[in-house]
Amino acid sequence: MEDHEHIVYMLKCKDNTLYTGYTNDLEKRLKMHTSGKGAKYTRGRGPFQVVFIEKFPSKEAALKKEYQIKQLSRKRKFELIRDKLKEVMQFEHTKKL
After folding, report:
1. Looking at the domain assignment, is residue 97 inside a domain?
2. S-S: 6 plus which of 18, 43, 48, 56, CB 3.0-4.6 Å?
3. pTM of the entire predicted model
4. What is the pLDDT of residue 1?
5. Is 57 part of a structural domain of the chain?
6. What sections of the chain are H helices per DSSP?
7. How far apart are CA 6 and CA 55, in angstroms?
8. What residues form DSSP beta bridges with 18?
9. What does the angle CA 51 – CA 33 – CA 8 come to, to the nearest 5 degrees?
10. Residue 64 CB partners (closer than 8 Å, separation 6+)
11. Residue 11: which domain range?
12. For position 46, which CATH number holds?
């Protein structure tokens, strides 16, 4: 399968800090973070909670978004998470097919 997903994600660490990353295999990447082989920042900060996921059609678009998120203040990151959650909740309340 050549066509990978391009995902930007945020983890909430046990010390209540946020980590933003890019991957094309979220499950594998989360296992790396958990085993201490992920980003240097996340070592020793587990367990993690995935608090944000956004998928993109290209690596370039995903990396651009990752960079934008990393420039945000902690407060704005939590607002982004909250807004994404609202979106999910609204979708959940739409009619079932």
Report:
1. no
2. 56
3. 0.87
4. 35
5. yes
6. 26-34, 59-71, 74-92
7. 6
8. 12
9. 45
10. none
11. 6-92
12. 3.40.1440.10
Task: Round to whole Å and give the CA distance between 57 and 14.
Answer: 31
Any residues with CB less than 8 A from the CB of 42 and at least 6 apart, and which? 11, 13, 19, 33, 48
> CA neighbours within 13 Å on the CB side: how many for 14?
8
Total structural domains within the chain: 1
Q: Could you report the per-residue pLDDT of 11-68, keeping only the tens digit for each?
A: 999 999 999 999 999 999 999 999 999 899 999 999 999 999 999 999 999 999 999 9
DSSP state of 18: E
d(CA 57, CA 59): 7
Alpha-carbon gap, residue 3 to 43, rounded angstroms: 30
Specify if 37 maps to a domain.
yes
Task: Look at residue 1 and tell me if it is in a domain.
Answer: no
Can you read off the two tokens belonging to residue 49? Answer: 């909670």
